[in-house]
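User: Quick sanity check before I run a bigger batch. Here is a single chain. Can you write out its predicted 3D structure?
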Amino acid sequence: MGCERVRIYHDQALFKEAGGGITPWHADQYYWPIDTDNTITVWIPLQATPLEMGPLEFSAKSQQIVFGRDLQIGDESESKIKDNLRINNFEHVIEAFDLGEVSFHSGWVFHRAGANQTDQMRKVMTVIYMDAEAKLMNPKNDNQIHDWHTWCPGAKIGEVIDTELNPIAGG
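Assistant: Done. Predicted structure follows.
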């Protein structure tokens, strides 16, 4: 991440029902009112996750792309980002996860997940880390306003995000 210490931005359970649809292409950092690109998400499946269960898939090195960073997750992000990634020939990575395997990706890496074609719930935890010196930026969209009030309540624009919900990891 290029920083000395990290703090937790937030964690989240992502359970996809049996038969649940795709998670469209997107970049997580669209949602975060953070003034740094020094962010990372750890994707932690809580069971073995075969391809039929819709594991995380991503476009390797796509954090270099600016196009699509302003798109909220949905049908538009799925089609526009998919087309742009294909045009730019970024490697599409999709693999099953064994129990105990995890994945880390930058906040600007474009990623998605397939449909859960099984009869079991796909259970995942995510933890997002940010540079410990990250500051709250003036939100650029309603999603960032929501994230500000939900995941870093009391933080002030232009100041380090140092709230009770955002502890330094390991400290």
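The two ends are 18 Å apart (CA to CA).

User: Great, the batch can go ahead then.
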